[in-house]
């Protein structure tokens, strides 16, 4: 029953999204009589403060110069609005290195996310829609890999890359980020629901090759699942600190995370060089904004994608 | 009725079988080609390093003679290494304190949002999720400043009401401060997984209970939570894996509070320091391997006990 239910839900979801309340297409006849609870509303919004205030502090602090940072109340603006000065500082110190870090991060994250999504989509599609010897074993191995601590793998990966002479190159960041066992799992679940077998049969009867069918029929139907895997790989690579930290030596190649940590280390080691604090804070703000925007704009996709994954999970 | 179609199919079989078997073979080849790229990267980036790490852990590098086979010496050393045990104890504290708090809060938020009784619940959901998009590096730096005694707002408020300066970054308090950072980062993510599962419960399941006069709490406890058990288990497993792997938080708090964070504060951070600061690659590999083994064992036990519980309940009902 749940099987049918999810399938129905997914096919309703896929072509055009509807707001969450009607989303499952499930009737909620009693919702009209439900009373809104003021107590619950107040409680929830108070809790929201915990999640939002640190980010609010980050924003407010990046509008202050260093002396105001120390002398004014942290959760409200200081006398001067120095956000632009801070940004100019951030982007021009050390020959515009920060801009380079932004470029690196965008490049690593996009390449890795596109690659991981493609690989996961192809593998997940094959697992969902084909029968082949070894399918069960291969899929269980993939699932088991979710358990392997990726950071525990980083050390041997580093040694292998060092032997191949690939450390301190973009490859060292991108290639390890291409593996997404959870992405394969999610795409399999998604493909099983979203792609109808009869469509594939029809394409085969028409003489379409398997790869053309995948691109023209399968890929399109996988939309929200693809966005989910893409977004989570994007965030994974964007936020990754451990891998670039061990793989990269030249600060020209750093992504934002390692760069920020380096400025922070310099700032606290320098002690007196207080100017660095506002650079770290403004840099943090700049690092956060693109991802928050990506999640906000793509929320309808990743939320439906995640729900498919967790229902079957 | 079942007979006629079978008979017809048998008659048509020879020709059909030849066609299906060539198209089956083609499909099989296509399937292998589809999974090939993934498994190539999977093999080189996951399986090979895993075995390499196991291999390394059996060696020792000596000043004279270089790499030498050492058998289980590195593992024996790890088992007697109080720094390693200390780091595992701190992970245990995370598993017993931070993970339950985080997941219970996430579940409460998910249930509250799913009940549809709060105003602006869509916005609330997004705002609670937002910290997930914040890189752990930024989250740790930010909280490090927030905790800070100089311009941290918490200290400012505490001083203003006359409570003195709270000390979040002392050796005694840093573990709690770190738990708070991780909780802040991941409540939203776990909440979204649970919320998505809640939305897919067929409404009939609990509307019947509601008609019978069961209150919201009753419905949540006896209908909704059991229904989303698989999703909750998913978050438990992910949180266990995540706790063992904590690296960014101790590593960055170390620059903020060097006295409070030792180089073996968390096992993963310890392995990193062993490998890249102390240059003890083989021992670090053994620690990393033990860590992976431990994660697999703990996740397996959790899953097994869940399956047992399920079976027991099925027998009871």
TrEMBL record, chain A:
GO biological process entries: transmembrane transport
GO cellular component assignments: plasma membrane
Region (Disordered): 12-31
Main location: membrane
ABC transmembrane type-1 domain segment(s): 102-298
Sequence intervals crossing the membrane: 38-59, 106-128, 137-159, 171-191, 221-241, 275-298
Keywords: Cell membrane, Membrane, Transmembrane, Transmembrane helix, Transport
Location within or outside the cell: Cell membrane
One matching Pfam family: BPD_transp_1
Compositionally biased region (Basic residues): 20-31
Domain of life (superkingdom): Bacteria
Membrane topology according to the record: Multi-pass membrane protein
Family per similarity comment: Belongs to the binding-protein-dependent transport system permease family.
Official protein name in the record: ABC transporter permease subunit
Organism for this UniProt entry: Agromyces seonyuensis
UniProtKB/TrEMBL annotation, chain B:
Main location: membrane
Sequence similarity: Belongs to the binding-protein-dependent transport system permease family.
Membrane topology: Multi-pass membrane protein
InterPro entries linked to this entry: MetI-like (IPR000515), MetI-like_sf (IPR035906), UgpAE/MalFG_permease (IPR050809)
Name of the protein described by the UniProt record: ABC transporter permease subunit
Residue ranges annotated for the ABC transmembrane type-1 domain, each copy included: 88-302
Keywords: Cell membrane, Membrane, Transmembrane, Transmembrane helix, Transport
Gene Ontology CC: plasma membrane
């Amino acid at each position: 029953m749940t099987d049918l239910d999810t399938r129905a839900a997914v096919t309703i979801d896929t072509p055009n999204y509807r707001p969450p309340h009607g989303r499952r297409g499930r009737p909620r006849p009693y919702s009209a009589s439900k009373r809104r609870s003021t107590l619950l509303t107040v409680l929830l919004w108070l809790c929201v403060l915990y999640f939002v205030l640190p980010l609010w502090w980050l924003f407010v602090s990046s509008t202050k110069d260093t002396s105001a940072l120390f002398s004014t109340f942290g959760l409200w603006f200081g006398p001067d609005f120095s956000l632009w000065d801070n940004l100019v500082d951030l982007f021009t110190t050390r020959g515009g290195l920060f801009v380079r870090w932004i470029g690196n991060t965008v490049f690593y994250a996009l390449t890795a996310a596109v690659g991981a999504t493609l690989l996961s989509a192809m593998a997940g599609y094959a697992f969902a829609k084909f029968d082949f010897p070894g399918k069960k074993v291969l899929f269980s191995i993939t699932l088991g890999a979710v358990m392997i601590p990726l950071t525990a793998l980083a050390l041997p990966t580093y040694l292998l890359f060092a032997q191949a002479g690939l450390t301190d190159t973009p490859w060292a960041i991108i290639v390890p980020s291409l593996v997404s066992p959870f992405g394969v799992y999610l795409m399999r679940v998604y493909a099983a629901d979203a792609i109808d077998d009869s469509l594939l049969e029809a394409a085969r009867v028409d003489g379409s090759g398997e790869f053309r069918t995948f691109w023209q029929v399968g890929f399109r139907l996988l939309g929200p699942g693809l966005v989910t895997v893409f977004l989570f790989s994007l965030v994974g690579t964007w936020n990754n600190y451990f891998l670039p930290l061990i793989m990269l030596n030249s600060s020209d190649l750093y992504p934002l995370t390692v760069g920020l940590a380096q400025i922070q280390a310099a700032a606290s080691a320098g002690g007196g060089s207080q100017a660095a604090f506002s650079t770290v804070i403004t840099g943090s703000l700049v690092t956060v904004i693109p991802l928050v925007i990506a999640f906000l704009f793509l929320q309808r996709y990743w939320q439906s994608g995640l729900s498919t994954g967790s229902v079957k999970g | 009725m079942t007979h006629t179609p079978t008979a017809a199919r048998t008659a048509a079989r020879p020709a059909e079988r030849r066609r299906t078997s060539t198209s089956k073979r083609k499909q099989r080849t296509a399937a292998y080609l589809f999974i090939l790229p993934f498994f190539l990267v999977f093999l080189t980036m996951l399986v090979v390093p895993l075995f390499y790490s196991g291999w390394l852990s059996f060696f020792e590098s000596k000043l004279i003679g270089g790499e030498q086979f050492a058998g289980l010496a590195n593992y024996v050393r790890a088992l007697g290494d109080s720094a390693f045990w200390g780091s595992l104890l701190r992970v245990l504290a995370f598993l017993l304190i931070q993970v339950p708090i985080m997941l219970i809060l996430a579940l409460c938020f998910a249930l509250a949002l799913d009940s549809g009784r709060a105003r602006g619940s869509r916005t609330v959901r997004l705002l609670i999720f937002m910290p997930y998009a914040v890189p752990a590096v930024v989250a740790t730096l930010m909280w490090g400043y927030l905790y800070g005694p100089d311009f941290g707002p918490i200290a400012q408020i505490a001083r203003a009401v006359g409570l003195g300066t709270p000390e979040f970054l002392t050796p005694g308090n840093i573990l709690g401060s770190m738990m708070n950072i991780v909780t802040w980062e991941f409540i939203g993510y776990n909440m979204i997984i649970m919320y998505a599962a809640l939305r897919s419960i067929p409404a009939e399941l609990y509307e019947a209970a509601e008609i019978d006069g069961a209150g919201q709490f009753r419905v949540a406890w006896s209908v909704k939570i059991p229904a989303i058990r698989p999703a909750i288990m998913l978050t438990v497993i992910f949180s266990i894996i995540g706790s063992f792997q904590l690296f960014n938080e101790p590593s960055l708090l170390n620059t903020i509070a060097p006295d409070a964070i030792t180089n073996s504060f968390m096992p993963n951070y310890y392995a990193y320091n062993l490998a890249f600061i102390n240059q003890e690659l083989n021992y670090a590999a053994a620690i990393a391997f033990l860590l992976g083994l431990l994660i697999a064992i703990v996740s397996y036990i959790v899953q097994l006990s869940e399956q047992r519980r399920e079976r027991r309940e099925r027998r009871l009902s």
